[in-house]
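batch job 7 of whatever, protein = FUN14 family protein
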Amino acid sequence: MVEIDPTSMGFEFAASAILGGLIGFAVKTVAKTVAVIIGVQLMVFRYLESNGIVAVDWDRLSAGLLETQQQAKQGAGWLESVVSTTTVGVGFASGFLLGYYRA
């Protein structure tokens, strides 16, 4: 017979929720920082291109970003299915989402 200890399950859920919240907050903060850096870099490219200093092939640049986005979507589905299978995964996912949206 399998013994289920509600206390240890609650502890695992709470610990993983806290850890997920911290990681979610960190991921969103890093993502915002990266977005600002990329935005500034694109503005610099536009400025240099408008002054004739640099010639940028914007079609090739955007094509690379689209390919990266498609690869990221493929990996996200696999990661979601693995994390959501255990009580630790449920706590982690809820904490991650809470931390991500509160950032």
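notes: The mean pLDDT is 76.
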